[in-house]
Amino acid sequence: QVQLVQSGAEVKKPGSSVKVSCKSSGGTFRHYVFFWVRQAPGQGLEWMGAIIPIFNTPNYAQKFQGRVTITADESTSTVHMELSSLTSEDTAVYYCARGLPPLDWGQGTLVTVSS
Amino acid sequence: DIQMTQSPSTLSASVGDRVTITCRASQSISSWLAWYQQKPGKAPNLLIYKASSLETGVPSRFSGSGSGTQFTLTISSLQPDDFATYYCHHYNSYPYTFGQGTKLEIK
Predict the structure, then answer these.
(1) Does the structure show a pLDDT above 90 at B10?
(2) Average pLDDT for consecutive 10-residue bins of chain A (115 residues)?
(3) What's the confidence (pLDDT) of residue B6?
(4) Gap from A73 CA to chain B (nearest CA, Å)
(5) Closest approach of chain A CAs to the CA of B16, in angstroms?
(6) Cβ contact (<8 Å) for A44 and B98?
(7) Fewest beta carbons less than 10 Å away: which of A2, A21, B32, B47?
(8) Which of A91, A67, A69 lies closest to A10 in space, CA to CA?
(9) C-alpha–C-alpha distance, residues B12 and A60, integer Å
(10) CA–CA separation, A99 vs B39, rounded Å?
(11) What is the mean pLDDT of residues B76-83?
(12) pLDDT per residue over A10-24, tens digit each?
């Protein structure tokens, strides 16, 4: 059974960083493409970046270049997304997803940035 | 970056109606387009991939068409469960992007 389970909700201060995890089960972890997509309250879906573990070379949306880091840990079948220099504009639900196009999605992780 | 433009942004319709949502890409994406349905508080659900292929388990009242820069999602006969927000999504080349969404409301 394919499943993506994300880490829990986070509350962060402006200027800090957050790291969200996504554990994958089912299928061959290293061959899939994993994405991170976020959704601000009441807004649409925003593509942040992607990684294929076997190549381990992430691709990022220009908007997040320099601020986001996506990594894959084959030993634990887990993908991580770290976003730095947080502002209130980064308050959103962050989703990991798998497949091309993404078929399997995590449950979402709410990140709240507030002083 | 390839921009995806959906229309309309909001659509009011009744159960049983046939509805069409349009997505336009700023440059050709061949058929590398997917459609998603999203309900409040839930992750998106894949409906259509490669512009016109129906994902397993998705009702046949959903269909997709188009290639290049113009795409459509059609729901042949709206059911109560279909009232949701729909997004197009290209996966032709990085960075992949989403349309801004179309909210389908009950008239």
Answers:
(1) yes
(2) 92 98 94 97 97 96 96 97 98 97 96 97
(3) 97
(4) 22
(5) 27
(6) yes
(7) A2
(8) A91
(9) 36
(10) 21
(11) 96
(12) 999 999 999 999 999
Over the stretch A38-56, which tens digit does the pLDDT of each residue have? Answer: 999 999 999 999 999 999 9
Whether B55 and A62 lie within 8 Å, measured CB to CB: no
Taking CB atoms and an 8 Å limit, are B46 and A60 in contact across chains?
A: no
C-alpha closest to that of A93 among A9, A5, A4: A9
The reply to whether residue A50 touches residue B94, judged by beta carbons under 8 angstroms, is yes
Distance CA B29, CA B11 (A): 25
Token code pair at residue A17: 């960083």
Q: What is the 8-class DSSP label of residue B88?
A: E
Chain B residue numbers with beta carbons less than 8 Å from the beta carbon of A37 are 98
**Which tokens hold the place of A19?**
């790291």
So what's the pLDDT on residue A27? 87
> B 16-45 residues with CB below 8 A of A?
34, 36, 38, 43-44
